[in-house]
Design goal:
single chain; mainly alpha; 15 helices
């Protein structure tokens, strides 16, 4: 990935468009340079204030994607973006149309539903946006943020929140089959299926996942380096001759091949992970049953050990109460010796 600098970031922000690929590509680049999170947020806010209302929404979509996808890496972006969100959203709502305001409201709702920020933080953020007092409310929200943002939060229930997305996805058509989640598939597995698994196969498949498509940093870097022209239709207006059009066509074709192949690998990985998840569920089910049997046997032998210890204790007590034979008097002591055989017969 290209090196980080203020000017490089500003250039990438200016080239950003509203497509999901463009947003996710820049989001990946930003997360890669998360050690510069404070500078990134400052440049992002500065550039957001310069652009038109429609592009402000795209910038906030970008921040949303970075915040939600960087949490596993660390809290830097969640914290640093949080300190400027009142100012950013106030600017975003300014001169915005009804549709754009609805999209901004939806982002706030998603953050609340998924617990991205605390309830107090979201409450003060909304109050700051509603009042339009950018400077004072930003300072107030920073204070709340420092106190509450890292407070323990209840993890959202996957059934209660919508899937994570950057741009609202299209509704499923009535004739399209409803997709079954992995949890539903696992819950629907019969006991016989859960009872059968191969430990050796499970270990091999888990090891193979270390080289899966999602771990292929080289391909992700290639995708991140794709020029913006391949995903921004507005760039076609800059073409004035056939040679440049052909070059762009070749670049687009290569990008399509690259992305199609990577998407295929990701789909295969998804199916493989589902298969591994089923094997893991079967393995856990078997181990749970064996654990129950082991606990039962352990309790049985503990009971036997307790009985043996009782017998042992009683036996020691009984032995201690028995007389010591070595100390008893000799019953033959003081008696005359027996005559010899020869004396008895007069010899």
């Amino acid at each position: 990935m290209s090196s980080f600098s203020d000017s490089n970031l500003a250039k990438k922000l200016n080239e950003l468009n509203g497509t999901q690929q463009s947003i996710q590509t820049l989001s990946l680049w930003l997360i890669h340079h998360r050690k510069h999170s404070k500078t990134i947020v400052q440049v992002w806010l500065r550039e957001l204030k310069k652009v038109t209302p429609p592009r402000r929404l795209i910038y906030i979509y970008l921040a949303n994607d970075v915040i939600q996808n960087s949490k596993k890496k660390g809290p830097e972006f969640t914290h640093d973006f949080g300190t400027v969100m009142a100012e950013a959203f106030t600017t975003g709502y300014k001169d915005a149309g009804e549709k754009q305001r609805g999209s901004l409201d939806r982002i706030l709702n998603i953050w609340e539903d998924r617990g991205v920020y605390t309830k107090d933080f979201m409450k003060n953020l909304r109050q700051g946006i509603a009042s339009g007092q950018t400077a004072t409310h930003t300072a107030h929200i920073k204070d709340v943020f420092k106190e509450d943002i890292l407070a323990p939060r209840k993890e959202p229930n996957p059934k209660e929140v919508a899937p994570k997305e950057v741009i609202p996805r299209k509704r499923r058509r009535k004739d399209e089959p409803e997709q079954t989640s992995l949890k539903q598939e696992l819950d629907a597995m019969k006991h016989d299926e859960l009872a059968t698994h191969d430990n050796e196969s499970l270990i091999k498949r888990l090891s193979a996942l270390e080289n899966s498509a999602s771990c292929d940093a080289a391909i992700r870097e290639k995708i991140a380096k794709l020029p913006p022209e391949v995903s921004d239709i507005s760039q076609l207006a800059k073409l004035h001759d056939k040679d440049s059009a052909r070059r762009l066509s070749n670049t687009v074709d290569n990008a399509c091949v690259l992305l199609t192949d990577y998407n295929r690998r990701l789909a295969e990985e998804l199916e493989e992970r589902k298969g591994v998840a089923k094997l893991l569920r079967a393995f856990i089910n078997t181990q749970t049953e064996q654990l129950g049997h082991a606990e039962k046997r352990l309790q049985e032998y503990k009971n036997k050990l307790a009985k043996v210890n009782v017998v042992r204790h009683e036996l020691k007590s009984h032995i201690q109460n028995l007389p010591d034979i070595s100390r008893l008097p000799d019953p033959l002591a003081g008696l005359a010796p027996l005559p010899k055989v020869n004396d008895l017969f007069g010899h």
